[in-house]
Records
---
Amino acid sequence: MTVKNVVQAVHDTLHDEMARDDRIVVLGEDVGARGGVFRATMGFLDEFGPERVIDTPLDECLIAGVAIGMAVDGLRPVAEIQFADFIFPAFNQIVSEAARLRYRSNGDFGCPLVIRAPYGGGVHGALYHSQSVEALFAHVPGLKVVAPSDPADVKGMLIAAIEDPDPVMFFEHKKTYRLVRGEVPDERYTTPLGKAKVARPGSDLTVVSYGLMLQHSLEAAERLATEDIDVEVIDLRSIYPLDIDTVLGSVGKTSKVMIVYEDNRFLGVGAEVAAQIAENALFELDGPIVRIGGPHVPAMPFSPPLEHWFLPDADRLEQEMRKLAEF
Amino acid sequence: MTVKNVVQAVHDTLHDEMARDDRIVVLGEDVGARGGVFRATMGFLDEFGPERVIDTPLDECLIAGVAIGMAVDGLRPVAEIQFADFIFPAFNQIVSEAARLRYRSNGDFGCPLVIRAPYGGGVHGALYHSQSVEALFAHVPGLKVVAPSDPADVKGMLIAAIEDPDPVMFFEHKKTYRLVRGEVPDERYTTPLGKAKVARPGSDLTVVSYGLMLQHSLEAAERLATEDIDVEVIDLRSIYPLDIDTVLGSVGKTSKVMIVYEDNRFLGVGAEVAAQIAENALFELDGPIVRIGGPHVPAMPFSPPLEHWFLPDADRLEQEMRKLAEF
Amino acid sequence: MAKKRSGGTDRHSELGLKREDLVSMHRTMLLARFCDERQWAFNRQGKAPFVVPVSGHEAAQVGSAWAFEAGKDVFCPYYRDMALVLALGFTPRDVFLGLFGKAEDPSSGGRQMPAHWGSRRLNIISGSSPIATQVLHAAGIAYAKRYKKEDAVVGTWFGEGGTSEGDWHGAMNFAGIHKLPLVFVCENNQYAISVHESKQVAGRVYKRAEGYGFPGVEADGNDVLETFRVTKEAVDRARAGDGPTLIELRTYRFFSHTSDDDDRTYRTRAEVEQAKRNDPIPRFERYLVETGILSEDDIAAARAEAKEEVARQAAEAQEADFPDPDSAARHVFAEDGGAA
Amino acid sequence: MAKKRSGGTDRHSELGLKREDLVSMHRTMLLARFCDERQWAFNRQGKAPFVVPVSGHEAAQVGSAWAFEAGKDVFCPYYRDMALVLALGFTPRDVFLGLFGKAEDPSSGGRQMPAHWGSRRLNIISGSSPIATQVLHAAGIAYAKRYKKEDAVVGTWFGEGGTSEGDWHGAMNFAGIHKLPLVFVCENNQYAISVHESKQVAGRVYKRAEGYGFPGVEADGNDVLETFRVTKEAVDRARAGDGPTLIELRTYRFFSHTSDDDDRTYRTRAEVEQAKRNDPIPRFERYLVETGILSEDDIAAARAEAKEEVARQAAEAQEADFPDPDSAARHVFAEDGGAA
Ligand SMILES: Cc1ncc(C[n+]2csc(CCOP(=O)(O)OP(=O)(O)O)c2C)c(N)n1
Ligand SMILES: Cc1ncc(C[n+]2csc(CCOP(=O)(O)OP(=O)(O)O)c2C)c(N)n1
Ligand SMILES: [Mg+2]
Ligand SMILES: [Mg+2]
């Protein structure tokens, strides 16, 4: 076991996988000499050389399209999109091509591709360095979409993503990069994609979250414990496949549920979670299904008071949880 | 009043608006001599000239980006994306630029732009001429997203969209183009964006739908009327803003609700509708919130038996409605 | 062994093409033409909802295909490329299985529209409808081939309309930067559906290459020996490690864009008729006769045989089974969890 | 009235630049440089979380800006263009209001990161972070201007990294097809963050123009008279209806990409020092002295005054109010329902 933060877990895992499998190449903007703007590929250029550590032109469409070609030809590309906000020029290649290649060829071709992108706010990143984009991709059949935020999960799920025969969107909350630290087993292991986990067991109320909001939810839950409100916090980790069974199991126990996400609320991940609960467990509920998500405002303004206005924190979550617990 | 089908309503409305306001230009692939592949701009080139009826290069990113520039400079561009499936190369311009221009400039700039796109399946269009994309845009703050399917609404909402000071995504179900006919008032009028309507009043069960599925829902409802099951069918028409009040009003009356949509179910429009009902009307419900949507499979395969497998029809909706009514 | 027969100048020998090659190229062009005519007939009979014609493009496709090595090189074509895939190993039956959306359609098992070619066995990468996405895949594959030190050249085909998308720009740029073993073939038929080249391409397609630091060449796309020649040069350069080439083959499409189109709104009949006078098949046949490769009778026999073959295989495909409805749920993700 | 003073060759008169122009250009370059130095100081003090430097680009920006007509022409810049917007009417106070995210920030009221310029009043179109999107807006505006028969030229600025995006390709193509009154200005500083030009641009940027059917020119981006000259020619052509031009101004960025970057990972100190020897400001000052426009003392005074002015206005901006938190909910859509 070694204590690492999230970005170290990304770096070390990617490094070790590259060392053991020369089909793996990384490509993206500034992944070479610069080692990535968050240093996720620091030192890779020297160790693995420019053929495997590819500084691409400033063209996300190219990054995705070239990576698809590599994947089709047997490599295992791990593409980096510098900020999730800049993934949209690649939207067509990801959604029309990567996601549909296997289906459209009736299984003849596959596309074992990982696209990593830092997402999320709280870093003074303003309107174009703060967005959450997971819902847009999770809607698209043919893509797996994950967003782990615990360093041990990051390792296990990144290896699983690289091994996966299909395209995986691997979203890393950039605020958790240095904020979240945890023990990471030293040996190689995979953590299955598509499984949620109970991050904090509890009995009074279920909170479903992921990413930075998971951290705030855990903090709020700890505070409420002192008031004898016992909150169960579930870390979704994977958006698609969505582990609704773990959610329903918890809701069956607590009868109350709140979904906390940073993305814009409308048609964000919480909408699907709420809808599946409403379809499957409506009569087990003792309170409304509460969603706490971003307002319907572009995420998120720069100026500190405005950014703070946008982003829920542990204080606000604590209040909302208390309110629901007392419903 | 004149009886028209959907594509005639689009054509005639666009024509009349162009005739009265020379700030309006149309641009897209094949909108000129060809009059659009669905003939929505037939005859426009001759009447309004090549400066206002612009055949663009085959580049949707260009179409959206150029249209944004025109809108910023005071024109009223109505861009056509030939098929909604091909809107993804324009995703960045629409989502990062059109949607955020007003917000990011603190109201200094606006972007009065309409993007029209035929969407939806049931036309042997296979994987890239059948998709529904409304949910992807409705998630994005700063965009209005509408999907009328009644010719009179098409007229009123298209005029409203052109008059709207903000970008409007105007989705037309291509199967309704010739299938759906109705009376269209001859005088000029607008139908507000953001209002649903009760397409068929009823008391036992609320069905919320739009597009082609609305037609199938209405047919199924008619059949069930003979069994004394009285279904209220709501035509959402607008996805964002979403008129949840009309939905909740109906659900308050019927206590049962089903949402029917053609798009992939997971994180499709029905997810948001279901989530909002679950938040606001949980204790008024006498049955689970049922969503009928596309399977998690790329929409939609070509071969007739496969396309039929994908797309719900009135038979299937009739069964599902009966089941929920009897719950 | 360049020599004249029956008065025609031998242009093929110095290109390394033998008699068998020419006969086979001719037959492939005929198969494409007759498949096209047959599919339109099915369409008119209401038996095929969607047809993508190839007629007019046969020389561009067959000549360029012949410059590659099947089994080794990799192909990223577009929907217009029926003659190309026939040259690469598709049978007419395969074409019609796709046309009818039958279970055995090698490209997609009936999932995609007709003319969305793909075959792992033949190194033809499955293509989609969105224009020009395949050129970036070609660049990625070319990069992978070189990385793996495999001796393979990648070819990608697209219309002049396809040059407008950002994907094309990205692929040209990436290919130029990395000097990839990649050949870009533009089948310039002057129209993207109805949009004329003059509204599609500022400047000239082939001239774009220089801006990316590699050669661009223009050629008569209706002359199969010429399309072979320029492509062969490009393939040889690529194989030698000298990087990519952009080839612009000027040609014409004889029918509407697809069966959903009506070209009378944007092309005069006179223009179409004029173009047909330059039909690549009779033109090649004149060459074959002039150089004594085939006699007029040989050609008549070849035509009859090809037409007959197409009719037989089309009928076979018509008889084949549709896919099982429930199969529509398969292959969204890998079924064995294993690698692709 | 081209004549020599104090031994220096007068290059400006034949360009139509007067003494006042030169003095004003010099002052604008100084303001930009001192704003840059001041913002870095704030950053080091923890008072400004994010800084985008301009130093090194002053000649490219001020010279090209001067070729346009303020109040009439339209500008689509990118984040690096602080000197450009200062030339167009931004004050140092405006720059610092943006730096601190204050309510009065004219670009965005504190909503965007610093250096995301915009002002309806100054015809500077609000820019975003995604690279190269603005070049298409510029094309649309140029089209609209001509459609409305307004006498306006549109200028758009971008780095050489920006040429890689599909948006850039689309804008070049559309501008070429429609011969738009549009000037493309590439500030080529050889790096996109850490990625060197050789991994970014296959071929050469300015050579791309020919492929789109219009002229491309290269110029020394550190010589303000030269950047003015080539841009003026392009603006004149555009205004005369002769279509677009692509200009490549070769320059260098003296600091890291932004305050989040550390350029020591990808540029040697020797390379940076070498580039600084070509600093556009001293170079222009030598010209001013040699031609007798300003004396050494005049220059020292101008520097002192500009520095003082920047400090004063920066302090003012520091005192200004933050936006009201609840204002974050405004302007997602138009508030009056009226047109923009
Ligand atoms: C991204 C995208 N936009 C639009 C279309 C619709 N479309 C299909 S083919 C075509 C024209 C293509 O013209 P070109 O590339 O010249 O090829 P050709 O058909 O002439 O061989 C268009 C606009 C599409 N398939 N994909
Ligand atoms: C679409 C997009 N991708 C990536 C980025 C991140 N990014 C910001 S600036 C930059 C480099 C730009 O380089 P260049 O265009 O040469 O301009 P310079 O900064 O050198 O002036 C990158 C990669 C972005 N802002 N937008
Ligand atoms: Mg064409
Ligand atoms: Mg640069």
Note: Chain D touches chain A at residues 49-50, 101-103, 108-114, 116, 128-132, 161-162, 164-167, 192-195, 199-201, 260-261, 265-266, 322-329, 332 (CB under 8 Å).
---
Amino acid sequence: MLADAGAGSTDAALVQGAQAGDEALYLELDGWEGPLDLLLDLARRQKVDLRQISILALVDQYLTYIERAGAMRLELAADYLVMAAWLAYLKSALLLPKEEQEDPSPEELALRLQLRLQRLGAMREAAARLMGRDRIGRDVFLRGAPEGLRTDRKTVWRSDMFALIQAYGQVKARTAPRIYHVANRPVMTLDSALERVSAMLGVTLEWMEIRDFLPPHAEPALRRSALASSFVAALELARRGRAELAQDGAFAPLRIRRLKEGATA
Amino acid sequence: MNAQGEPGMLERAVEATLFAAEEPMTVEALAAHLGGIEPSEVREALALLGQHYAARGVHLVERGKRWHFETAPDLAHLLRREKEQVRRLSRAATEVLAIIAYHEPVSRAEIESIRGVQTSAGTLDVLMEAGWIRLAGRREVPGRPVIYATTPEFLDHFGLESRRDLPGIDELRAAGLLDPVDEAMEAAMRFDPDDPDEDDEEGSDAP
Amino acid sequence: MNAQGEPGMLERAVEATLFAAEEPMTVEALAAHLGGIEPSEVREALALLGQHYAARGVHLVERGKRWHFETAPDLAHLLRREKEQVRRLSRAATEVLAIIAYHEPVSRAEIESIRGVQTSAGTLDVLMEAGWIRLAGRREVPGRPVIYATTPEFLDHFGLESRRDLPGIDELRAAGLLDPVDEAMEAAMRFDPDDPDEDDEEGSDAP
């Protein structure tokens, strides 16, 4: 495969060089952070700026590496094999005549690979430079036994005169002896309403408005009580079959009249 | 340290070592740490450092033959700062304070009988912390209960010349402050004002 | 500090506070701790202190807008403990940390596209546990991936005043090496679209 690639002597030498250092390389197999990492390391062996690496040479280096790993019966993770297949495809595409090229072109794919390697390379270097800085606990040290700063919270209580006397007023009000009284309100009892309504029903057989049964000059509170009691009395009389009730509609005047004797029987 | 104030290497090394050390160090420990130099050299460096730091916010001090840096004594207040936090007195505490003010000197049992609810020790602690009440001796009755009274700070905070300036019961009534309706309103507006748990907000040692 | 080398009161107070503090402090925190003085005054005092300590065994440094004292880097060999206090990071963790620092905020998928390999959950965990990276919200793209950024502790640990001090970040940015590959591809295609010589360039070192 190496011969088919038609790679120049420089490339071949580089591959050769990589092979010379193989022992260490293969022992590190578990140390690679994926196929891109391995590619980057191989690219570094070309000892040129990553912008000038030969992708074809790199592909050969990688494929050789994978082959040798296979020969040594080392177990390779699937993604290394996927990368190998892809690189083999890339290499053949790069060597194909131009007119048969697909989109994206193999040159674009190669450029993309190169850009990715540059970026990974940049980060690998950056990481190394970062780790080489003066680090706390290794190169520089903080105060071993700082006294520490403490902020003690102190509560300042606040109140005012009104809150004070209001509180006292409430205590006094709460604990003062209490006298309960029930107001004497004017009411018409159900019994007296029954009596009144029955008595008035005896006067006529005609329909009468229930309002007419109320005491004529009563104060409003008594009137309300009388209306309620008279209504209940009317219902009671209807239940006993002594009166009938009629109302033309909701909230219309409620009318009542005596039921003739025997009508219910 | 030379005349220009540039410290020498050993002085800097001792300075950094003491700065980073977790415990005060003896001259011997310093000498060993710095690669087995002569204790006399360390002593010299310590003397220079001591001079240098004498005017600064941090001093080099020796305690029991061990050396360390510590905050200059005149700046010790910077290590512990007080931060004031203003809080409004709770209703329970206000009631207790009012009762003490109107009835002083008064025992806890008396406060409770006036309030009609138990009073947690925390409530009285808060009033003590505020500086508004003080222990005013003991009542000479069985059990010799502690009695409480208000302080000059109390009068100060509430803008009173003396306790006689507190409005009397008649004035409170005139102001509507004895009106039971107020209490009913209060009850409707917030949680049960008689709830003995309310005292707990001051402290946990409620009876 | 005046000509005689006597530090002023505020300089001493800032010095003592930073010596005693367990954590680096911002100018604002210092101003608040020193009783609410002007931040500009604190900055002045810090400038004087920085000058004063520049030659000494202990330096005043600013890291992510927070200030602290630490030993001078040139004394590292004297101070290294028997047991290294710094955690050893795996190569994966080191690279992930660098990618986050130089690209922040950055999603896991973006980290993986640079490294060409999946990132184990443990790697990010280690960096989070060290306090060097933090979750910095979510990227508003489909899937709303979590994005990561570095912390002030990261700057602290690696002795960086700010992210601008990351080694070589300006050069990397100028070279476009912090841009995604897609962007770089577009840029490259725009400059020499379908350059027929490009292939030759790849193999140009062949005789």
Note: Chain B touches chain C at residues 5-7, 11-17, 19-20, 33-35, 55-58, 69, 71-72, 75, 78-79, 81 (CB under 8 Å).
